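step 3/5: co-fold with uracil
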Amino acid sequence: MSDASSAFPQHIIARKRDGHALTHGEIYSFVRGATEGTWADYQLAALLMAIFLRGMDTAETTALTEAMMRSGVIADLSHVPGVKVDKHSTGGVGDKVSLPLAAMVAACGVPVPMISGRGLGHTGGTLDKLESIPGFRVGLSLADYARQVERIGCALIGQTKDLAPADKKLYALRDVTATVECLPLICASIMSKKMAEGIDALVLDVKFGGGAFMKTRPEARALAEAMCAIGHAMERPTVALLTRMDQPLGRAVGNAVEIAESIACLRGEAGSGADDLMEVTYALGAEMLLLAKVAATATEARAKLAATIADGSALEKFRAIIVAQGGDARVCDDPTAVLPRARFTSEVRAARSGFVREVDALAVALGALRLGAGRIRAEDTVDHAVGFTRLVKIGERVEAGGVLGIVHANDEAKLVAGCSALVDAVAIDDEAPATEPLIVERIG
Ligand code: URA
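step 4/5: write tokens
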């Protein structure tokens, strides 16, 4: 075939089926076929499965990412001074890091253009959390997004229909053809959307463990290395941290309850107890400040981030973002008065004394889903008020009758289900468990 880009879909599918590396032209033909509808869904799905089974090398994965990024509009933030840096997490339970992080980094003068997602599977989504703030709009146009990043240094919005539309089509097909868990497809899906945001650099939080999509550290490392390689090939410096996701991050899992926890962290409230949440936030934030060249060392970066909490500038930045996006900014002063609250709450108590050995993140996430905090089907609506708070952490001492967590529900049957999910998620032993580091590796 002299011009591979004009090859018939079945030829391209056959080449990948037989284990060949696809050319740039063949990959662009596939992505155009997805965007313009010139390939039938069964042909797209057949090639996705061939990629799933045969894989892609770095050059193919980079070409796929570029083609998907160019399938729609690429946001232009060139008029915004400074190095624009975003963070992406591969998804976890109680993972509200984006909220304090975006405000703290933007308060350090680094523009943070952040396009986030909704809950996916058992993992929560930043957009669903933000929408628990009354009035908050995540659906800004790309023009409003660019203006807001210029004006206040940060926008927290959802994917627009003109950004990487090929991913929307291909992701929906992957979801129903058992081709989601495929490293080159995950890489291209995430990186094409991030690269289309108008960023100059990217920090990735690649999670592994029971509450993450990548269950093992080697799988997470492979994904992190592949995404960093693509970032560098596309001249957007990219750094990844591998972080453990065996227990929920922080002590709250849900939507409004996670906003309240984030605000407590931004207010520097002693006793918020979310040390692990802030450990990940500081580590990612330091990488962002280093990439943006506003700090020369990690120590300097951490000091700058800490100053934004101490002087209140991070909370003020969060308030400015909420105001700009139509939300009720009084939430920053009195979260409980502003955020939706569930009708029923119940404390779950320990049956015995000992040390917490496990708080199974996946079990807690499935409990939150049952309460209505996420979606079981795409068309489900999210109940922003429900979830868990005051969750115990691994290694803590509890006494018999002590509180393991509080369940928030809007229906009595769901309250019972949430309580039993939490009882099953927590394991208590006589001995204190060995402590495992939360941030295990840096790649990039
Ligand atoms: N998140 C994405 O955006 N895409 C994937 O393929 C997986 C997780």
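step 5/5: annotate
The pocket of uracil is lined by residues 171, 185-186, 189-190 (CB under 6 Å).
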